[in-house]
Structures are given as structure tokens and as C-alpha cells.
Amino acid sequence: MSFVIRTALKNIKGKPFRSAVMIFLVMLLSFALFSGAFIILSLQNGLSAYKARLGADIIVVPSSASGHGTVDDILLQGITGNYYMNKKQLEKLDTIEGIEVSSKSFFLTSAKASCCSVRVQIIGFDPDTDFTVMSWIKESFSEKIGDNQLVIGADVTVPADHIIRFYGKNYNVAAVLDRTGTGLDSAVYVNMNTVKQMAEDASRLSAADGLEGIDPSSAASAVHIKVKEGYDINDVTDDINIHVPKVMASSSRSMISSVSEGLSGVSNMTGFLVGAVWVMSLVIIIAVFAMVSNERKKEFAVLRTVGASKRILFGIMCAEAVVESVIGALAGLLAALLAGISLSGLIKASLGLPFVTPDTASYTVICVCSLFLSAAAGIITAFLSAVRITGNETGLLLREDA
Amino acid sequence: MELKAEGASRWFFRSNKSSNYFYAVQKTDFTAENGKITVIGGKSGSGKTTFLNMLCGLLSPSEGSILLDGEDMYEMSDSRRSRIRNKLFGVVPQGQTGLKSFTVLENVLIPAQMYGSKTDLTEKAESLLDGLGILELKNVYANELSGGEMRRMSLARALICEPQFIFADEPTSDLDDEATSSVMKLFRICADKGAAVIINTHEKEVSDLADKVYRMDKGVLLPAE
Ligand SMILES: Nc1ncnc2c1ncn2[C@@H]1O[C@H](COP(=O)(O)OP(=O)(O)OP(=O)(O)O)[C@@H](O)[C@H]1O
Ligand SMILES: [Mg+2]
Fold first, then answer.
1. CA-based, 20 to 30 A from A141: which of A36, A58, A204, B130?
2. Do the Cβ atoms of B159 and B146 come closer than 8 Å?
3. Which residues is A112 bridged to in the sheet?
4. Using CA atoms, how far apart are residues B47 and B40, in angstroms rounded to an integer?
């Protein structure tokens, strides 16, 4: 082992407190950087998944849905409920001008299913008109979803035998949807025949409320609308709100913009926090270097008297910093990874925004970046302090007391 | 080899009535004598340390030059000057100069290992420590040593590479008589092998054993009467 490296390691071991402080501070740097990047990236992923998932230009729900939150909340958090538009409303809706496609869905708030500890939400949709659900099926699934088949959200556990029981009947899991980062990830999608069947079973078992007098074939909980080329989305939305009684229509663009506003707020906040941690840690690192520099000056002056060149001193200081920074950066990364994995559910829940954790490639990129940047920050600070110390004449340094 | 000071002086900033600087060492001519022990005495603050540091390449003169075989040491690159200090010079600085994360033996071996030496000088280091009476401390960390023990350790460190020029700044200031005489014996052996030994000291016992004695007086180097 070369003299430089051996001396650096001895110094690290010989000054455990000094080394620990340095390692800890670099650890903070990489922890902050990684978790910040993790949160911001997850939010961005969430937004694009949400945008793509919405698909529709306008979403219409009955006014009675407002007891469950705004349309945004309903779609964002996946709060579905037992609210329905009747035949008259739907017929009126069909007369509105400028609608290219409209696709109805029927919500059934389920009882506990055999597979799930939470209540799953059953959403009946029409595969013939659908343009929002099937495009999210993960695996290639060319056929249309048939009767008694389930398409499930990413958070619903798939049983080994691919069978989930609802209201006393078994259903087959046919496909899994991609993650959206919203409550929709815990929903189960079925076609209209199936949801009708389920609704009947539910009424018979009195396992669902609010279904009295509701016929799934002529009612709908939500309608996704694609607007015709040449029509203004806001005008169509207004038309619906004015002409169709007791419904709320909302343009998804306004929903997306409100989500992305909330998102950029949280992103900015996160960025600010990361910046604050960095500034603080770097200031402390510089202060620590200044504090130990007297001790170091004497140490280095002695090495100079026995023939160490500036290059050797530089080498020793930098080798120390490299070892400490790499250990610190790795430790911070590890801590952040553990925290990210174990707390991402909690973060998601407390933010109330679409949150999709990064894929392996992005994970790798932010790991490498936060490792590299925080180690580099530690090394550069050490380097600057080395420049300051070796800039002095040894004969002058020797006079300073350790 | 020949080491000379030619009109070398050094001033520092210090304000008083007439000026804002003063000469710690006035323009000085000096030649290190190979094979001899030279002692520089003088009051505290007279400029002994400043002068010795200039001679051994650790402090650049304000005027004049320090010449090693006719070449100005302070015109050399830092790595060359450092290499010379490592191989040809043995420096015992004033004050406590142990590297605290190293043991006594490791401290002594530092100069030999700094540039990757092939020969193992452990035995030589041990015999030096033995000669100075601190062999039993070889595996003790330097921060556990007394002042006198550390002084003797840095002496062994200065001598490990068999330097041709030895600069010792008050090497015996906290040693008892017995240790002082063993240090002087070592210096004599080095001088007999041809090294130039230059010692700063206050102590008469040391001057008595010298071949040549100078006195520093307010920055002026004078031959002692
Ligand atoms: N870096 C410096 N800056 C300012 N003044 C200095 C500096 N180094 C030395 N001096 C001054 O120069 C003078 C000579 O100092 P030096 O250390 O050479 O004395 P010395 O003869 O070795 O004294 P001692 O016997 O106490 O070691 C002193 O007055 C000291 O205060
Ligand atoms: Mg002195």
C-alpha cells in the first residue's frame, strides 16, 4: 500500500470523531439528494400516469357524487361510491353537441372480497366504447374483456389461482393494469354484463347500499367523454352543466392543471428542503475543516519537514476525503433507499397526489447521481481546504500550536 | 555537498514607530561545514529558528539565497526540494512534532517510506531508538509520549535516512543530562561519517561539545568569542 493511502487510513482511524462527523455530513448530503429526487420523480411519474389514465376530455358524474368530494378528488383518490345518473340524464347527455365518444361506467362499492383486506371498488365499463381503461392493461391482451372476467388495478393482490370471489361467485382475473399512483390502483374493472350480475347478487345478499331501483344497464356513475375535433372542451363542459340536470361535468385539463399545481408546489418544497440541507451541511463541513485545520496544519508541517511534497500532502487529504465521502455517500444512499421503500406508501397517502415510484433504470440513475454528487461535494471541500493549508510556508506553519 | 547562505535575510510584518516590518534575520553569509558540529546560540527571539528554517528549505528568505551545490534551493520545484529534504536533510523542528496517529516506530520510519523505499529500515530505526533510550516505547502511539520522549523520537526520525545535513532546533531542551549526552553522541557519529550538523541551542553543555559556535544577536549571526 502506498504511503499516501496508508497515512490517510491511519489518520481516519486515528481521529475517529473527526472522521465520523465528516462521514455523517456527506451521508446527509446523499440522503437528502436521493430522497428529494425520489419524491420529485415519483410525483412526475404520477402526473404522467394520471394524465394518460384520464384520457378523457370531460368527465361527468351526478351531483350526488359531491358528497364524496369534488370530481377531481373522486378521480384522483379513486373515491367511488354508490351514486348514479338515471336514464333521463344520460339520454339528455347524448343530445349534447360535440361529443365524439362517450363511455359509461358503473361503480359498485364492494363488500370485502376474499382476496383483499380492504374493500375493493368494482367499476363496470363498456369495452365497446371504452377508451380509458383497456389502454392501461399491462400485458398484451388483445381480446375484449368478456363476461365474468376481471381487470384489476396494480395494487390488488392477484391470487395464485387467479380467482376472486364477489358476492358468492367466482371471477377470473384476466389482466392487470399499470400503476397510476391513485386510488384507482385498488379498483377492479368488469364489463357491464358482469357488473349487472354483481349488482343483482349484491342486492339479493343486501351487501350493497343505494342500489334500490337502479338498473345497471340504464344507469351510470360516470361518463368519460372525448370531444369532437373542432369543438372547444370548455364550451362542451359548460353545455353539459347547463343542459343536463343534476350532473357535474369537469374538463380533465382543469383537473390535470390543478393536480400539476399541487405537484409543482410539493416538488418546489422538496427541492427547497434538499437545497437547505445541502447548504447547511456544506457550511458545517467547511466549518469543521476550518476547525480542524490548525491541528492539521501542524500535522502537515511535520510531514513537510521530513520531506513530503505538496503533492503528497494533497494526496493524503484527498484520499482521506475520498474514503470518508464514499462511505458517507453510500450510507446515506442506503438509508434513503430503505426509507424510500418502507415509507413510500405513507408519503403517497400523506401527499394526496399521484405518486408512482421510479422504475429500476431511474432508480439506478438517481442512485448513481446522488452518490457521485455528494461524494464530489465532500471531496471538493476537502480539496479547497487542502489548497489553503498547503499554500502556507512550512516554516510558518510549524510555529502554530496544535 | 555544499550548503551555503548568501546574503540571506528574512523580515516579518510588525508595526512599530519607524516601520511596519522588522528583520528577524539580517543579511547573513554562512557555510555549513561537513563533518563538524556547528552550534548557534543566542537569546530567545534572536532569529535562530528563522535562520535554521531558511537553511533547511522550509522558509524562503526575503533577500539573498540558500545554495545547495551552487543551486538556489528556493528556485527548485516543490517536489524536488521536498525530495532533497527527504533524502539529504534531517530536520528536528522546535516543539512537539509527533504524528499522533502513528506509533513511535512508524513515526521514525515515515521518511524512509514516503517515496516508497525498497529496503526495510526497521532494524536501523530500532537501533536508533535504542541509542536514544526509548526502544521499549516503539509500539506506543506518539500522543502518549512525554515531551522529552517525543523529542528523541523526532531525532531518530530525522536520522533514519542517514542525512548529509542535520538541522536540530533545540534538540535537547527538555532532556536530562544522560539523554542529552546520548543525543550528542549520536550527532558526533553522524559528523564523523561526514554530515554537517547544525544545532540551535541555549545550553552550554551542547556548545561545549561543538566544533564551531555561533551566536545569533537580534538577527545578526556572529562567531562566538
Ligand atoms: N511568522 C512570523 N511572523 C511574525 N514574526 C515572526 C514570525 N516568525 C518569527 N517571528 C519573529 O521573529 C523573531 C525571531 O524568531 P525565532 O523564532 O527565529 O527566534 P528564536 O531565536 O528561535 O527564539 P527561541 O530561542 O525562543 O526559539 C521573533 O521576534 C519572532 O517573534
Ligand atoms: Mg527558536
1. A58
2. no
3. A119
4. 10
- DSSP, residue by residue, B59-96: S--SEEEEEETTEEGGGS-HHHHHHHHHHTEEEE-SS-
> Which residue minimizes the CA distance to atom 28 of ligand 1?
B45
Cell reading at A149:
372476467
Grid coordinates representing B64?
Answer: 539573498
Q: CB under 8 Å, gap of 24 or more: what pairs does B183-186 form? A: B183/B132, B183/B152, B183/B155, B184/B209, B185/B131, B186/B128, B186/B131, B186/B132, B186/B155, B186/B159
Q: What kind and span of H or E run contains A270?
A: helix A252-305
Say if pTM beats, i.e. exceeds, 0.80: no
Q: Extract the C-alpha cell encoding B168.
A: 536540530
> Which cell goes with A334?
442506503
Q: What is the pLDDT of residues B10-47, one digit of tens each?
A: 999 887 778 888 899 999 999 999 999 999 999 999 99
**Inter-helix orientation angle B122-131/B147-159, to 10°:** 140
Question: CB-CB: which of B50, B100, B114 is closest to A307?
Answer: B114
Write the pLDDT tens digit of every residue in B57-77.
Answer: 999 999 999 999 999 999 999
Query: Residue A394: nearest ligand to its CA?
Result: 1
Amino acid code (one letter) for B56: C
d(CA A322, CA A379): 6
From chain A residues 245-304, the ones with a CB under 8 A of any chain B CB are 298-299, 301-304
Give the total residue count for chain B. 225
CA A267 to centroid of ligand 2, rounded, Å = 61
- Residues 6 or more apart in contact with residue A1 via CB below 8 angstroms: none
Flag if B99 and A303 touch (Cβ within 8 Å): yes
